[in-house]
Amino acid sequence: MSREADPEALVRYLVGSLVADPDSVDIVKRSSGDSVVFEVSVAPDDVGKVIGRQGRVIKAIRTLARAAASINGEHVEVEVLG
Amino acid sequence: MKQEITTQASTVEEALDKALEELGVQQDAVEYEVLEETGRRLFGLGAERQAKVRVWLREEFIREIELGELRTEEESRPDDEKDFGVGEKGPIAKGGPPKAFAAAGDVVSSLTEEELDNVADEAVNTVQAILGTLGIGATIEEYEGDEGEIILDVVGDDLGVLIGRHGKTLGALQVLTSAVTNRRLGFRYPVQVDVEGYRNRRRVKLEDIARRAADRASRQGEPVKLRPMPSLERRVIHVCLRDDERVATESEGQEPFRAVVVVPRRR
């Protein structure tokens, strides 16, 4: 039960599962010090699916990604590039 | 569960918020019209007019609405039964659609046992995939809720990280499991995710808090403000006290400090 958490794989899985066009998903990881930002790009028609009404989905992705990172003692952010 | 509601508040946004909370749904589940904008009455005595909105559930949510009818019956049962009612768990019924479906009309009963198993499988796979990326190995137990919803309870050691502060991480797990599962299925079906029965324990506790607050408010004749809670928890309080004739409930404040106030009714 104590394998390391993999925030990047988590974001990749979630975003890939939510979009209609998984081939257009691109996730760029930028790190500075202890903090990591995942920049997510998807097909224009899929942006809404990743964000959700009132940002509900992207907020949930951020919350889970932070939980994943906290298991490893890290900090992550997730941004969707429009 | 109500399908339509009219609410008033000092702004249209707040009235809408109140309606969504009462209905227990997110904004994508409803359509609404503004009956009255905020403003001053033309010939009034300067009294500020409240914004008034009518909010109704969209057609696509008919399945959830119909399941919701059963929930209303649930709530009208006596307290001692109610405490364990919603959380009462049984394995997913084999050999025919569960009772809730049979009573819930065509849309829902059109789900065969096989399709239902398929929904459960998709939901379990989604949760397992997420847990995998978190490096968490756990068992997922499947249950059928009283309203026909699929309940997945994640069971294992040291799962606190999945619950988070005030259940925030669990809430996110729930949102994403539903979103991914519905996306894969191509239709919406209610799936609830729990961790070590947290939701159920929490609900029982919240109902206790609600009843104590109602007792206190009606005894003292003064409003009782509860501590801030997320919307799902506030809903438990509203629903629990909906049939209590002694009090009314409302929410005030802005997220994340929004809190339920239990107000005594005048006799």
Features:
heterodimer; A: 82 residues; alpha+beta; three-stranded mixed β-sheet; 3 helices; B: 267 residues; Defensin A-like; GMP Synthetase, Chain A, domain 3; Ribosomal Protein S8, Chain: A, domain 1; 3 domains; three-stranded antiparallel β-sheet; 10 helices; 44% helix
Cα end-to-end separation of chain B: 27 Å
The major sheet of chain B is characterized as: 3 strands, antiparallel
Given the helix and strand composition of chain A, which structural class is it?
alpha+beta
Q: Largest inter-chain interface?
A: A-B, 28 and 30 residues
Radius of gyration of chain B: 20 Å
CATH architecture of the largest domain in chain B: 2-Layer Sandwich
Number of helices of chain B: 10
Strand order of the biggest β-sheet of chain A: 1-2-3
Please give the alpha-carbon distance between the first and last residues of chain A.
37 Å
Main sheet: strands, sense, barrel of chain A: 3 strands, mixed
Q: Helicity range of the residues of chain B? A: 40-55%
**DSSP strand tally of chain A:** 3
* Largest sheet strand order of chain B: 1-5-2
Q: What low-confidence regions of chain A span 5 or more consecutive residues with pLDDT below 50?
A: none
Helix content estimate of chain A: 40-55%
Counted up, domains of chain B total 3
As a percent range, the share of strand residues of chain B is 15-25%
What report would you give on this structure?
The complex is a heterodimer of chains A (82) and B (267). By secondary structure, chain A is α+β, with helices and mostly antiparallel strands. In chain A, 40% of the residues lie in helices and 24% in strands. In chain A, strand 1 and strand 2 form a beta hairpin. In chain A, helix 1 runs antiparallel to helix 3. The termini of chain A are far apart. Chain B folds into three domains: 4-57, Defensin A-like (2-Layer Sandwich); 62-196, K homology (KH) domain (GMP Synthetase, Chain A, domain 3); 200-264, 2-Layer Sandwich (Ribosomal Protein S8, Chain: A, domain 1). Helix content of chain B is 44%, strand content 21%. Chain B contains ten helices and eleven strands. In chain B, 34% of the residues are buried.
